[in-house]
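Form P-L/3: holo structure prediction, ligand fe (ii) ion.
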Amino acid sequence: MQSVAQKVEHQLTDKGYVPVYTTRVIEQPWDSYTAEDHRTWATLFQRQRELLVGRAAQEFLDNQQRFGMSADAIPKFQDLNHVLRAATGWELIGVEGLLPELTFFEHLAARRFPVTWWIRKPGQLDYLSEPDLFHDLFGHVPLLLNPVFADYMQAYGAGGVKAAAIGPEALVNLTRLYWYTVEFGLINTDQGLRIYGAGIVSSKGESIYSLESAAPNRIGFDLERVMCTRYRIDTYQKTYFVIDSYEQLMEATRPDFTPLYARLAQLPSQAAGDVLASDRVFQRGSGEGWLNDGDV
Ligand SMILES: [Fe+2]
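OUTPUT (holo model):
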């Protein structure tokens, strides 16, 4: 099946300026994956599975197995959806790439998670500017089996629809929440800090850096703190925020953010590497290798 996606605009995202597509939902063209595509999946899958033992949240790894994800072949969305619908009522939908923001929020609010159908080329194993199938499927989908995290993602989508109506500043605040949790979040467990953010688990380098490097800050999650903190799109993060549980995320997201946006509008934003007196600090980063400008 040939997709007919049309690029409409470029949008600043977690990976820089990337194309946004008009495409709505498309069927995963599974038969069109080449042997090379399946090999790319296998290489990335095996590499990250090995690396993530003892680094990713155990539930993340277990859930990949519940889905039956393996190195054998690129999973079929249809098969994953049987498991996912039964567990949390979520559904994966195939897309060509990043969607316009409001469309993305509307999907999440309806418990539909958009997954890019195509996978990167073998020369792009370690870096890709747009989210692809590996990032979306390997990174984002496993935690959708967790009922609390699944509710959090829906609440985030509903919050996005609301924020879009309030204005661009509200969206900036909300986007930081997604960034520092869904993409780059760490969780505190009895065994130590573990990764749950999709942006980290789908990156070999950041899977190690986020947990083991002395350079970044690791700071306890606080909703307001996160919403006023800028971030990096061109380097590893200067700060990772640590949650205690997915319940904590869900609870923080439950209230209406409208008064919070109004309050945050009066406050200066924090640089990505700032440590505040009020922070619960797991690690104060050495700052080694940090660039001075470029926070977004
Ligand atoms: Fe992502």
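COMMENT: Residues 147-166 form the longest helix (20 residues).
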